[in-house]
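Quick one from the shared queue. A colleague (R.T.) flagged AraC family transcriptional regulator as missing a structural entry in our internal table.

Convert sequence to structure tokens.
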Amino acid sequence: MTMLAQLQVSGDLAGLARDFLLREGDTRCDLYAYLQGFAADSRISFSQWWELLDRLQQRYPQRHIGLELGQLVRPEFVGVLGYLLLSSETVADALQGFQRYQRLLHDGDRATASLQDGCLRLSWTVDYGPSSQLSDEVLVVGMLTFIRQMTARADLSPQAVQFSFAEPADAEPYRQALGCEVLFQQAQTAILIRPEYLALPVNNHNAGLKQLLEQQAQALMDVLPQSEGFVQSLRTALLKVLQNGEPTSRCVARLLHLSERTLFRRLEDHQLAFKEVLAQTRMQLAKEYLSEGRLTHSEIALLLGYSEQSAFSRAFKRETGQSPRQWLRQ
């Protein structure tokens, strides 16, 4: 299980799946009854969110559930954050608000803004481990849907979208839903937004309402459960021991000021295994280093605490099914 699995997302998202079943007239199934049990102001784990998406996909195996749910996103399915974004002045203003308050929607990796090919690139790392394919589809398509709603521009499309999962057999539904080039098996999930869209006004801009919603959003942020605490500290410690060439549980425990026994107990409490978390962290960093293209494979092996390049290559192929060179050629 990844570190991300035990972190949390907004329970409002369950309403999105419930709305889909309601639109389908499929309200007598066990899944709908299950979804009724989630309160709008609750928090659920990523693993619960992934499970309900999987159940929905299994119920409609011929449909692209992630893409369809993303197209159904409305403010009420993202709570206060949704209404706050709708009260923003411009798309750029809304994206800044999303970055600041996105933990109201989900724990784990935060969206990071950067420039790429003249566009604003909003990207999510996989520092806590990968999310599910369906969840990433909902996130990216949902964000685009929201931008289209706030600008009343149904024709608006990003410059490109990047997904970290492998390319599906039929990628055309992705291109149709997003209206742009879609790249798969990338190091990060990302959406590239054209610069001219950033200045577009938000139709429902209300400065007074925005100020009130920001106060409410901050108050909610202040009382969110600190589910990230141990997981964040664990990841930071893993990065340090990898850099020092001593990726052992003893070294991690020492950095966390814990005994090894306590470390393993804390891992068990979070349904994590040390070897799995270490392997996931190494692979995430390996993909980032490979994508950047600045380091040789030998240097990457050294940075990740492998005894030699061949050990790194074997571990990479064991985890991904491909050698580092094959992965880069994808």
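The first strand starts at residue 8 and ends at 10.
The domain at 229-329 is CATH 1.10.10.60 (Arc Repressor Mutant, subunit A).
Added to the table.
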